[in-house]
């Protein structure tokens, strides 16, 4: 039988993994086995955190809206504000409301007064 020289496919695969992990620190970027483990871990974390990022931003927007709604009135909260918003059928999402609350407080006050009356 003829001699088969292996290694091209495996080297190409390892090179691809090593390129992915080139920014990792220490053995995580040098040793093949730990590199593959760290690569799997990084991909799992990035997949998990894509949905977590959406969740975190929604929480941030809700916190900002709540802070602005409670500034002026004593017994007015975020939940009442959103409830009245849906009752009046004003279709503004939380991201836009948080941006308005931060940048243009007068506009946010006008919106909240329209909702209450």
What does this structure look like?
- This protein is mainly α and 117 residues long.
- The protein has a single domain (6-114), classed as c-terminal domain of poly(a) binding protein (Orthogonal Bundle), CATH 1.10.1900.20.
- Helix content is 77%, strand content 0%.
- Helix 1 runs parallel beside helix 3 (32-72) and helix 3 crosses helix 5.
- The mean pLDDT is 91.
- Binds directly to 23S ribosomal RNA and is necessary for the in vitro assembly process of the 50S ribosomal subunit. It is not involved in the protein synthesizing functions of that subunit.
**Which architecture per CATH?**
Orthogonal Bundle
Tell me, what's the shape?
rod-shaped
Name the CATH homologous superfamily.
Answer: Ribosomal protein L20, C-terminal domain
Q: What is the H/E string?
A: HHHHHH
| Mean pLDDT across every amino acid position | 91
Percent in helix? over 70%
Name the poorly predicted regions. none
Ordered list of secondary-structure elements with their pairings:
Layout: H1 8-20, H2 27-30, H3 32-72, H4 78-87, H5 94-103, H6 105-116
Helix pairs in contact: 1-3, 3-5, 5-6
Outline:
The protein contains 6 helices and no strands. The protein is mainly alpha-helical.
Features:
117 residues; mainly alpha; c-terminal domain of poly(a) binding protein; 6 helices; 0% strand; RNA-binding; Ribosomal_bL20
């Amino acid at each position: 039988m003829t001699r088969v020289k292996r290694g091209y496919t495996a080297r190409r695969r390892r090179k691809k993994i090593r390129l992915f992990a080139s920014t990792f620190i220490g053995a995580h970027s040098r040793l093949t086995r730990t590199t593959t483990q760290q690569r799997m871990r990084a991909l799992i974390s990035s997949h998990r955190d894509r949905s977590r990022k959406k969740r975190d931003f929604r929480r941030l927007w809700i916190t900002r809206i709540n802070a602005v709604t409670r500034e002026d009135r004593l017994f007015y909260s975020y939940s009442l504000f959103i409830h009245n918003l849906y009752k009046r059928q004003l279709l503004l999402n939380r991201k836009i409301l948080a941006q308005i609350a931060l940048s243009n407080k007068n506009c946010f006050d006008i919106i909240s007064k329209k909702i209450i009356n």
